[in-house]
Design a protein that fits this description.
This is Beta-amylase. By secondary structure, the chain is mainly α. It has helices spanning 3-18, 33-43, 71-86, 94-107, 109-120, and strands at residues 23-25, 58-60.
Amino acid sequence: MSSTQFNAGETHGKTQQAQVPLAGENALPRYDEYAYELILKTTALNIDGNSTNREMCAFTYLRMNPDLFHPDNWRRFVAFVKKMKEGKDVHRCWEQVEREAEHFVHVTQPFVQEATVALRH
């Protein structure tokens, strides 16, 4: 269990006691599948392998910068968003989700180019 998962589990316990919803955000600018998978597990509060009736109410993705819009990073990010939308079904392989998300990657290409230029200025 990573320290991130431990902190989320500990925080989740406290929010349950206080009867308030739990939201989260990413802390580091990482664009790899392992980092996205960790976010998926943490937001599902799948800390101990049992996430029944538990999940964060919201998640904010921080660190939008030109690196995010690199073609490979953007493809993984689009797949990550797709997996977040699907909820707790995190068992599908990344390659399959990326293939399904390829249409959105292609459609958003003009936006990606515009965002990259805007973020560099």
